Amino acid sequence: MTAEYQVHGTVAVITLNNPPVNGLGLATRTAAVKGIQQALADDAVKAIVITGAGKAFSGGADIKEFNSPKALTEPSLHTLIATAESSTKPVVAAIHTVCMGGGLELSLGCHYRVAMPGAQIALPEVKLGLLPGAGGTQRLPRVLGLEMALNMIVSGTPVLSDKLAGTALFDQVFAADADLVSSAVAFAEKIADARPLPKVRDRKVDYPNHEAFLQFSRNTVKAMSGPFPAPLECVETVAASVTMKFEDGMKFERERFLHLIQTTESKALRHAFFAERVASKVPDVPADTPTRAIKQAAVIGAGTMGGGIAMNFLNAGIPVVMLETRQEALDKGLATIRKNYENTMKKGKLTQEKFDQRMALVSGTLAYEDIGQADIVVEAVFEDMGVKETVFRKLDEVMKPGAILASNTSTLDLNQIAGFTKRPQDVIGTHFFSPANVMKLLEIVRGAQTGKDVLATALALSKKLKKTGVVSGVCDGFIGNRMIEQYSRQAGFLLEEGALPEQVDKAVEKFGFAMGPFRMGDLAGNDIGWAIRKRRYVEKPEISYSKTADLLCEMGRFGQKTGAGWYDYKAGDRKAYPNEQVNAMIVQHSADIGVARRKISDQEIVERLVYSMVNEAAHILEEGIALRASDIDMVYLTGYGFPLFRGGPMFYADTVGLPNVLAAINKYAQGHQGGAWKPAPLLVKLAEEGKGFNS
Ligand SMILES: NC(=O)c1ccc[n+]([C@@H]2O[C@H](COP(=O)([O-])OP(=O)(O)OC[C@H]3O[C@@H](n4cnc5c(N)ncnc54)[C@H](O)[C@@H]3O)[C@@H](O)[C@H]2O)c1
Questions:
Q1: Of 20, 116, 329, 336, which one has the fewest beta carbons inside 10 Å?
Q2: Letter string b/e over residues 471-504, b meaning 16 or more CB atoms within 10 A of that residue's CB
Q3: Residue 540 belongs to a domain with what CATH number?
Q4: Are residues 161 and 24 in the same domain?
Q5: Interatomic CA distance for residues 462 and 466, integer angstroms
Q6: How many domains does the chain have?
Q7: What CA–CA distance (Å, rounded) separates 234 from 211?
Q8: Does 50 lie in the same domain as 15?
Q9: Ligand 1 atom having least distance to the Cα of 383
Q10: What is the spatial order of strands in the sheet that 112-115 belongs to?
């Protein structure tokens, strides 16, 4: 059953019932329309109340129906709203907890709306690159006024029902201790005979001088919405509520909605929305897999990552003990955490009370005995197998049975690390990204022997820490860094062939990346990549790299931390200034290796950087390191600044068309350092079959 029908005296009560949030899927819509018809046919019924069971009035469209023909099957949401609005008996929406999107649009089609305080009221469609398509843009301004409705529709942000009491949106907001259904029924009895039935569509949006306000809104919204068309379309459709007759405004809304739903930007946002949800699902780890309780955490190493990782636990209210080798390092790590929170407090984003609470949850130690009772320990010591071995052997000795032993390693073999313990089933990788207290991504590395309950616990923990958890198998670099390595290699080869750092960075930034590879290198520290390459020269001599980055490091230019890298930096200024000596070094290097420099187009730069990642990702998928293409997109959207409006590298490749991607790769395979390009078999196969990674 997706909507229940009951009669209370002379009032019919239709209760939407489609957990978790009474999404208005086909079955729910059908049952609601039937309910209204049944009430109309019953002479004993004088009025109708529509409400929602459980935790919502209605969260809006049923996301399970997104992109499916069911969404358009009759009765559509439009039909349901029209059925309510044209009812000859008054219809009262009784709102509580959550009333969003199509749910709010349905309520706006009802003759009256009553609500509990504290209900979240929103039209969040803009967050998926859309606009409210079932009358929301025309009806909300008619009850809230132009300005408030426009703000809600353009931002998608929820507003609490009590804040909207006194507007024409609500006929009554009940007291917090009221019983919603009986209060709504009493309200319905009171208005049962009142005629004519009030309809939102008949109201006028009264806003003198609206053109000036609308123009101001267009300018502001345009400046803020970057590459996304939806916010401005929201302004235009809301504008129609003032400038057009209701029916014409509805037609205009429909037209703009159908336009937006076809845009790549909206498709990318919807892809990311679903990708995030599906990422926490692992086929052989069912949703009912037991998890272990995480009430106490420990972090080994109070350096850059350790401090940020600890803050995640503190933010979630989980006490943390930090362990270091030296008191000095421990003090420094704890002081950094305090400083970070103090800065947040200064910005007004953290109260003194919360600050005190968080700082009270963190302590430090030099003794392993003090962490033995933790439910999870996250190791974030130097990236060195010898050091990791010492730590994990010790953890195996001291940690209580059932504790999860997690490593933050970026490149080392997790299975080898697990092998240092007698409990490899308890060992897992939790790869945080820097700054760990800010970045959303958590790569969860599943070792060959990691227990299913341990994996399920890590996935649940990622949600608790407000991270996007993505599962990766064990390989060099896991999903994210393994792909970025190809991107970095191409960036180096481009320098050898004729590009300079500034051109490469600008091309990639124009594509939408937050930062190009060279500015990124300067920020992260060029010495880190240097150390990795030095190891690779020995371990994997078959992999070619441009030597330019090594030459840069030999000049002592490690990046922002030394005030100089690919670019120059000035104190107190993050701007990157091109450096003549560096550029001369690059040009000289081309001559030294006998490459005649040529002009390289921005398109080639972007294609080589992005497609090299896509090709590596196809290997990653084929090897089962990533479970699905959308997981790879999540890694790049949440951990590497890949432009959201392009939906992630795999979604982007699908948009371009895999045959086109493959053709470009084959072309580059004929060029300088062409050996770096070997089309992944999966890419070739999908391109031949006319499929995409996400199809
Ligand atoms: N920095 C990054 O951007 C980043 C991102 C993801 C993962 N990682 C990984 O996180 C780990 C830590 O990196 P980091 O950048 O925080 O390094 P860091 O050098 O800033 O911090 C390491 C800390 O570990 C301490 N330490 C060393 N040996 C120890 C031991 N035996 N017991 C206890 N403490 C010990 C050191 O005193 C130091 O404070 C590495 O495995 C690294 O690969 C780093």
A1: 20
A2: bbbbbebbbbbbbbbbbbbbbbbbbbbbbbbbbb
A3: 1.10.1040.50
A4: yes
A5: 6
A6: 3
A7: 15
A8: yes
A9: 41
A10: 3-8, 11-16, 47-52, 91-95, 112-115, 172-173
- Percent of the chain beyond pLDDT 90? 94
What range does the domain containing 46 cover? 3-261
Protein residue closest via CA to atom 40 of ligand 1:
383
Residue 126: per-residue pLDDT: 98
pLDDT of residue 1: 64
Our answer on whether the CB atom of 500 is closer than 6 Å to any ligand 1 atom is no
Residue with tokens 């992260």: 524
Q: What pLDDT sits at residue 361?
A: 98
Same domain flag for 547 and 519? yes
pLDDT tens-digit map of 332-367: 999 999 999 999 999 999 999 999 999 999 999 999
491 and 543, same domain (yes or no) = yes
Please report, for the domain that includes residue 309, its CATH number.
3.40.50.720
Tell me which of 454, 474, 494 is where a domain ends.
474
371 C-beta closer than 6 A to ligand 1: no
Residue 290 is assigned to a structural domain of this protein: no
- The number of the ligand 1 atom at minimal distance from the alpha carbon of 332 is 39
491 in the same domain as 453: no
Q: Could you tell me if residue 267 is inside a domain?
A: no
531 Cα to the center of ligand 1, angstroms: 15
Inside any domain, residue 272: no
Please report, in angstroms and rounded to a whole number, the separation of the first and last CA atoms in the chain.
Answer: 32
Tell me which residues are annotated as active site.
105, 125
Residue 67 pLDDT > 80, yes or no?
no
> To test the ligand 1 pocket, which listed residue (379, 381, 442, 482) has its Cβ within 8 A of the most ligand atoms?
381
pTM, two decimal places: 0.93
For residue 431, the SS3 value is: strand
Give per-residue pLDDT as tens, 414-453.
999 999 999 999 999 999 999 999 999 999 999 999 999 9
Instruction: Report, as an integer, the average pLDDT of 36-64.
Output: 96
Which of 445, 474, 503 is the endpoint of a domain?
A: 474
Assign 407 to helix, strand or coil. strand
| Ligand 1 close to Cβ of residue 324 (< 6 A) | yes
> pLDDT per residue over 302-338, tens digit each?
999 999 999 999 999 999 999 999 999 999 999 999 9
Which residue, judged by its Cα, is nearest atom 39 of ligand 1?
303
Cβ atoms 333, 324 nearer than 8 A = yes
Q: What is the mean pLDDT of residues 650-678?
A: 97
Is there a single domain that holds both residue 458 and residue 504? Answer: no
Same structural domain, 190 and 152: yes
Same domain, 504 and 414: no
**Strand partners for 299:** 322, 378
pLDDT category at 24 given cuts 50, 70, 90 is very high
Q: What's the CATH number where 100 sits?
A: 3.90.226.10
- Residue 275 is assigned to a structural domain of this protein: no
Establish whether residue 305 lines the binding site of ligand 1, counting it when its CB lies within 6 angstroms of any ligand atom: yes
